[in-house]
Amino acid sequence: MKKQQEKTRAVKEIARRAREKIPSLWVWDDLESRLNFATDRSAALAVPDLVVLPSREEELLRFMELIQTFPVPLTPQGARTGMSGGAVPVRGGIAISMLRMRKILSVQRHNRLVIVHPGVITGHLHRSLEKKGFFYPPDPASLAICTLGGNIAEDAGGPRAVKYGVTHDYVLGLRVLLSDGRRLSLGGETLKDVAGYRLASLFTGSEGTLGIITRATLRILPLPQTRLLLLCLFPSMASALTSVQEILFRETPSAIEFMDRQATRLVRGHLPLANTDNAESLLLIEIDGIEAMVNHTLDIVSRICHKNAAISLLPAKGPREADKLWDIRRNLSPALYRIAPTKLNHDIVVPLGNILSLVERLEEISKDYNTTIASFGHVGDGNLHVNLMTNRNNPASYENALKGVDVLFNDVLSLHGSISGEHGIGLAKRAWLPRQLSKTTLSAMRQVKDCFDPIGIMNPGKIFLQGGNYGKKTSQKNT
Length: 479
Ligand SMILES: Cc1cc2nc3c(=O)[nH]c(=O)nc-3n(C[C@H](O)[C@H](O)[C@H](O)COP(=O)(O)OP(=O)(O)OC[C@H]3O[C@@H](n4cnc5c(N)ncnc54)[C@H](O)[C@@H]3O)c2cc1C
Known about the structure:
Strands 15-12-14-13-17-18-16 form a seven-stranded antiparallel sheet, with helices on both faces. The chain has a five-stranded antiparallel sheet with strand order 5-6-10-8-9. The protein is an alpha+beta fold. The two termini are 19 Å apart. α8 packs antiparallel against α10 and α13 runs antiparallel to α14. 36% of the residues lie in helices and 20% in strands. It has four domains: 2-99, 2-Layer Sandwich (Uridine Diphospho-n-acetylenolpyruvylglucosamine Reductase, domain 2); 104-222, Uridine Diphospho-n-acetylenolpyruvylglucosamine Reductase, domain 3, CATH 3.30.465; 226-330, Alpha-Beta Plaits, CATH 3.30.70; 334-424, Alpha-Beta Plaits (2-Layer Sandwich). Flavin-adenine dinucleotide is lined by residues 40-41, 75-83, 86-87, 98, 118, 140-142, 146-147, 149-151, 153-154, 156-158, 207-208, 212-213, 333, 422-423, 459.
């Protein structure tokens, strides 16, 4: 109680001083505004005591200097599309929204890089580069609404990870502000750089727990000459997944997306194909490169799919039809609510060779726990979004689904996989992380956090189940 009162007083004082000393910083403390920054796309909700929105790094730097006398929890936020609760201010304190820092600062085609603010919407960067004949490969399905800062903090991936990798493959340099007011410039503008530790890589995927990313230098690539999207329907999940394995043995398409039986049923009516009734599984395969190579790969992919009894193969007629097919894939997540009102969504990943075993296990979990499971996603890199569909208001159904999740994680680990391929640990998966990482590894990670965030105020309560320096005696030294 006493701590809460101290925090409330500190936040009030911070707001007063920030308004006085940094007038261009947006500082919001009314309940309505604070409620707007209390959630992401997970089920978590926690209202911050204050919200600040800087428009420039200098403003944020001055704000960080100002809070040194009153250390309270800080939660960096992008567009709050995260699925693991990472941007939810669970310990209250200050939500720092980066949405006003949204400039593409420099496009250097000759150096194959861009320099951006963290609040740039990913899709905006995509569109603006494509006009110049370049592209930034990471393509999370949320690209129309998420920010590059959030992508870097979560090390986001997307369908094109099969060929092009994920966000960390494109981060050349970062500028970050630490909780104690230090500013770090990490990496730079070169494609190679081995001067010291690769701290830019360490901050990529750090879920806002080490510092606030204020600027990023990202690698870009020339747009491929041709892109072709192939829609393939299969009579069974096994025939689709066998095709994936055989394709990857020979070729590297830019994307291979999978839908299981449940997901395929949801989208059947929207497909530009007549004969979809017997389809139990679906693949979207994108091939890119020079035209002759694309045609060559298409030929191999088609032969493999036919050999595995594909019901139909349909190459999209041009970019418009391809976009429509991608939209069907991107809208699948909300469509799941037609099955049940609550979705427990987990972004697990397994080695490519174990995907078929995983999908077989999902069928068993679904039966054992009487829960409909719809899975789909980036199968070309072993990453599936597994959705256990339930009803939070029906305790028996919900309890069953939760047990199913627990078994799912055990199965994923026994298949040498990871409990998170792209959404991060945040709040949602803290409880299971010790199952994947040893005590020694977790404690080494904790030490890394303590090194960059000695007073433990940077996004506390995330990744690690317990502990942290926030509120400990060490923080008193700084007050
Ligand atoms: C429909 C839908 C589809 C999705 N598809 C994908 C997908 O295909 N692939 C994928 O990887 N994810 C996907 N996601 C999840 C989500 O969009 C990504 O995790 C995205 O990277 C989050 O970006 P954001 O701007 O919304 O970040 P937020 O949700 O606001 O924040 C995410 C984390 O990043 C931290 N953070 C944000 N900005 C900064 C900063 N400047 N400095 C330090 N830390 C920061 C926050 O503290 C938090 O821990 C999807 C989400 C939705 C709703």
